[in-house]
Design brief:
By secondary structure, this protein is α+β, with helices and mostly antiparallel strands. It has two domains: 87 residues, no CATH class; 61 residues, no CATH class. The chain contains five helices and five strands; from the N terminus they run ααααββαβββ. Strands 1, 2, 3, 4 and 5 form a five-stranded antiparallel beta sheet that branches. A hairpin with a 2-residue loop joins strand 1 and strand 2. Helix 3 runs antiparallel to helix 4. It is elongated, with a radius of gyration of 23 Å.
Length: 165
């Protein structure tokens, strides 16, 4: 990583730190900058991330870039530089192998949670539970699971099962 990236990360840490204390970011020659640079070095030393972590970082960077596009005056050049550095960490210049993607299903109700093998099985289980126990509150949900070759996984949020077409 370059000195520019190290300084950008230290600057981001400084802004968060000084915001917490209600003070201004100190000048670069201030002794606190040695602390911020040490934290930046620690961050850079721990930049070995797996594919799932990389995917989460990319998603967070997309959100940050969207926010910067909508409110450009709210972000300084150093913020943009930090995003650029994090994009390099996320490996945006390199092609990662695509993950395998699957969907898992659950049937949830007053009794607890049951797994289902498919959307059809989940719908059938909900219908069965509601038929036998009309007040059980049964519903089905699903989530996407992505798995990479290095063994890392990313579990998406639970979402209602879409209506059958």
């Amino acid at each position: 990583m370059s000195d520019e990236q190290r300084t950008a990360i230290a600057g981001a840490i400084a802004r968060v730190d000084t915001e917490k204390w209600g003070t201004k970011v100190p000048p670069v020659d201030h002794p606190f900058w040695r602390v911020y640079l040490a934290y930046a070095d620690a961050v850079l030393a721990e930049t070995r991330i797996n594919s799932a972590e990389r995917a989460v970082l990319r998603y967070a960077l997309e959100l940050a870039e969207d926010k910067m596009a909508v409110e450009p005056d709210e972000f300084a050049a150093v913020d943009r530089s930090a995003v650029t550095s994090l994009k390099r960490l996320a490996g945006e210049e390199t092609e990662d192998p695509y993950p395998t993607e699957s969907v898992i299903y659950e049937v949830v109700g007053d009794w607890g949670v049951d797994s289902a093998d498919s959307a059809e099985d989940a719908r059938a289980a909900v219908a069965k539970w509601l038929r036998e126990h009309p007040k059980c509150g049964a519903y089905a949900q699903q989530r996407i699971v992505r798995e990479w070759e290095d063994g890392s996984e990313f579990y998406g949020p639970w979402a209602p099962l879409p209506e059958e077409c």
